[in-house]
Every structure is written in C-alpha cells, then in structure tokens.
Amino acid sequence: MYYYLREKQPYHILQEIALKNRTMVKTKDGLKSQFELMKPEDRIELTRQMRQWDASPGKYIYTPNPKEAWYALQPHTIKGISAGNRAGKTGTHSQDLVSQAEGWHPLQRNNLIKLSKEAISKEVREHCERLLDEQKWIPDPPIEARCISVDYGFVERVNGPEFVKWATKSELKYVGYDNEKKRRIDWKNGSYIEFMTHAQELDTHGGASRHVIMFDEEAPKNIWDESLMRIIDVNGRILYGCTGVEGVTWSDESIWIPGLRGEDPDIYVIEMSTYDNPTITNEMIDKIKAQCKTQQEIDIRIYGKRVRRGGNVYDMARDEYPWVIPSFTPPKDGVLILAADIHPKTEQALLWVWVDFKGEVELGNGDKSMPLREEEKKPNLYEVAEVFQHANVIQMDHLIKETEKLLGRTHDDFLLELAAWNDDQNSSSKNVAHQFQDLGYDPIKASKELTGGILEVKSLLTVEDFVKNETHDFPRLMTCEHLERLRWERKNYHYPTQIKGRNIEDMPIKQKPVDKDDHIMEDERRIVQFVVDHEMELMQVEDDNSFKMPDGSIITFDQEDNFDAILGE
Questions:
Q1: Within a 10 A sphere around the Cβ of 375, how many other Cβ atoms?
Q2: Which candidate, 481, 484, 486, places its Cα nearest to that of 325?
C-alpha cells in the first residue's frame, strides 16, 4: 500500500540515483559522480533503502500505473483483467495476492484506516472511508490461497518466479513451486499459496475453502464453478486474468460483459493494454504487432480486447477515432433516416443516420466532416442519435419527437422491419406499422437482406473505402461518441462460437451473426441497405435543394416533402 502514501515513488528515486551515478562533476580531486559528492549520511540512507527494496521489492519497488492502483482498491468478489501480451496482468495479480499474504494489502482493515487518513490522493482517502463505513475489507494473514494455471510448466516458468519476485524474502518459509511433491510457497506467518492446473481432475479442485484463488489464463467452466464454492464462506476473492487468444468462451457472459458494463455489484473488470506497462518499450510492442496477422489479433494481444472466436462481424472497425467522432447536430440539408427494430418484450431500438451529400459540416471537435469521394460523389453517413428502452408505440412516438427536437429536425424516411406489418391472427389489434400510420408516420418496409446489408456496412467501414482530409483517413460510416449502445453492440456483434453444443472445430461456422444483442446493428444494416437500394450514392448535389439523378435529370424538393415520394416509391 506504500504507493498510495508517497508523492515520490521508489522508481523516481532509483532514476535519481542512476542519474547521480552517471553525472560527473569536476572537482579539485578530479571528476566525481554526484553520488560520491553527497553527504555520508545521505549515502548511507540511500544504501539502506536500496538494501530494503532488494529484500522486499513488493513493498517498496512495485509502483502500479493509475489503472492498476485503482483496481487494487476494489473490494469485489470477482476481479478480472483482460490484458494484452506483456500488459502486466500476472504481476498485478501476483502482487495483489502476495500483499494480502504478508499483510500490506490496501484492502485490509488496518491499512484502509491508514489510507483513509494519510493517502496522498483525496480520491483514495474518500474511497477508503466509504469501504470502512460499508465494512468492505479483506482478511488479514494467515491466508490460504491457490493459483490455477494452464500447466505446471507455466507455473515453473512464470507464476512461481513472479510470486517470489514480489515477496519479502525474510518472511518466506518454503519456496517449492517446482517441487512435484509439494508445489507451494509458505510464509512464516502461516499464509501459503498452492499451485494447481487445468489438467487436474475436478475433484482435486474441491476440498477446503480458500481466501484467494487466482486464474492466470482462461479456465474451464467446471473448474471455475468449483472454485466459486471454495471462497463463499471465508469472504474470499477470485482474481481472473487472461489474454483472449483462444477467443471468448463462457467467461464473456459470466464475467466480462457484466463486469465491463457494471451490471453485477460483485464483479469488477478492466482491460489492460500492453501500452499500460511502463517497462515495455515501443520497439517491443512493434515486435508483438509484427507477429499479428489481423487487426483482431492486434486488439487481443496489444489492447486486451475480447474478440469472439467465431469472429467479430465488423472487425475492420475500431471503437475509437475516426470511426467514433465527437457528437454534433446535423444540418438541415442532407437526408435524415430513422429506423426502428421493434420487439414486444425487450427494448425498442431506434437509430437516426444523417446522409451527408456535401462534406462540409462542423464536427464536435471543430474538424470539418469528410469531403465526398470526388470520383464517385458518394455521401458520408453519420450515426447521430439512438434510443434503446422499453416502450409501446405511443411511448415511441414521444421518444422520437423528443429526440428529433434535440436534433433540430424531423426524419425524412422511417424504416420498419417487415415483421411490423404482420397481423396477429388471434388479436383484433392493429399491427405495429398501422399503429404508427395512425400517429401520422409513413413507415417504409426495410430490406430483410441480411448478408447483403452486412457487406454494405463493411464496405463503408473498411480501409479501402476511406476518404481523406488534410490530417486523417476516415471511413464513410461514422458514429457520434454518445451512441453507447451502438458502440457496445458493434464490439460484440459476432458469428457463432459453438453450434448445438459442439465445438466449432467439429462443424463449419454459419455465416450468420448470433441473433442476440444486435437490435441497433439491425437498424444500422437496414439504413445502409436503404441508402444503397435507393441509389443515394449516385446522386450529386447541385445546390441546397437539388440532386442530379443517375440518368442525368435534376430533381428539386422542399425539406418538408417526403423523400420517398420524390424517388417515386
């Protein structure tokens, strides 16, 4: 916990010492280092600190990055790190476990009291006060811990040495992580860590309770379930880390999605990039990148992202600039399209996309929107608003009007899925489309072409279809940053990972995305397909209210006119 109490961290002092040893100063006795010119008592104090750090690096040398420091203060039952290669997840969890075994973990009661009064950061002090009020602290030593790894080779090469690295040498009693008869590390205070693997029989993972269980890579579901039973009665914790090189398995639904979305109060997870590790140079990261064959692999191995084994549908897009841009209000020109994905029991999904034929709008960060592709005059598409919540048709009418009031204009076209026109043979109620018509809407039947629509969306997101301004390359389909639901769905829109309970190695993957959590994706696909089907990509802007059609004719319309009527629909 010492890194919460010091303004100048140990590695800063080490850097100063190294500088003093390298920097030579002229004296009457010749060149001497700054270290040699220090007062004897200062040199003795530095030497004492160096010896202390050497004997107990975890307590004195370990300095987490801000993400790790905040992660260590979370009292959740399940804590997870989805990390890139060399991002530091093993070191973070090993240090977390060692500090509890030795009694200097920030979440232990006496340490929380100290931090609530003496921590440098006001945010840390207030956080620790809240945890004390809620009595959310972890057990003091002695503790019984377990590290579950892929195999014992990994234990001997990685896990065991990492624990010893952060442990206080003078407090260790037994180090035998490579002893086939007794794979443990014991402390003199009674704490211990035992080492187990995924290959062991499930029965061996049962038995007595454990205060901490650490997984260093993706674990089989049955071992995870058994481990949960081991921590229940001792206020225990599970530290779960992995790099998703094998894709996403059971843990996505059980740990990562509820954790990243903050849906489960017992789970806290973070993503750690290789760039978060201060000891890794850019040259080392470039070497890792060079070994990656796809952008998906870079997302996994560098950024710690969760990428579905079956494959993300829009793997060419990233959840960052320039795919995601600062939010802005679309101008009166262009075409504003609204699409609705309707469901009787789940949330209703509404998406507004602005089709830009000029390429001169101001974005939220002061940049100009992208110019049109000169050779084709293709428009750019901007996703500018979304709604995702439970509502009936009357309530959706209110939501649409309120959203469009914020946009400063009404939609030009309103797309509904074909199912909205289906009549319930057992009910006298009007179908959804007719209910909207009664409210003054003029809904259009959206395309049901799944594969074609997906390919069209991909074409607007891929590198080959980028457009350029002076400083950036941009896709033709961009998303305003406040559309959180769309961004989340796009990251999780994937092809199947399993088919009827069988591994995907046994059967070919169906080229149809998993029909789950994809409501905004459906809206997006239908809007893009509508733009393509109506040849909007071939129109050329003549002035504010005129377009040149593919046959060369000029049409003029008033903003209040229905755009589909102009096209003869």
A1: 6
A2: 481
What's the CA gap between 414 and 340, in Å, rounded? 8
3-state secondary structure of 3: helix
User: Would the pLDDT of 15 be above 90?
Assistant: no
Residues with Cβ within 8 Å of 384's Cβ and at least 6 positions away in sequence, in order, are 327, 328, 329, 330, 336, 352, 353, 354, 407, 480
Query: How far is Cα 239 from Cα 268, in angstroms, rounded to an integer?
Result: 10
Q: Indicate the residue type of 248.
A: V
Helices (H), 137-188: 152-154, 160-166
429's CB contacts (< 8 A; 6+ apart) are none
The pLDDT tens digits of the residues spanning 154-179 come to 899 999 999 998 898 889 999 999 99
Contact 112, 137 (CB under 8 A): yes
Q: Is the pTM of this model over 0.70?
A: no
Burial class (CB in 10 A: 0-12, 13-18, 19+), 34: middle
Locate 520 and state its tokens.
Answer: 């905004």
Q: Set out the domains of the chain in order of their start, with CATH numbers.
A: 2-60 (no CATH), 66-301 (3.40.50.300), 324-566 (3.30.420.280)
pLDDT band at 294 (very low <50, low <70, confident <90, very high): low
Exposed e or buried b per residue across 322-346, where buried means at least 16 C-beta atoms within 10 angstroms of its C-beta:
bbbbebbebbebbbbbbbbbbeeee
Structure tokens at 516: 């789950």
Most confident region among 234-248, 296-310, 501-515, 537-551 by mean pLDDT: 234-248
Q: Could you tell me where the beta strands, DSSP code E, fall in 96-156?
A: 144-149
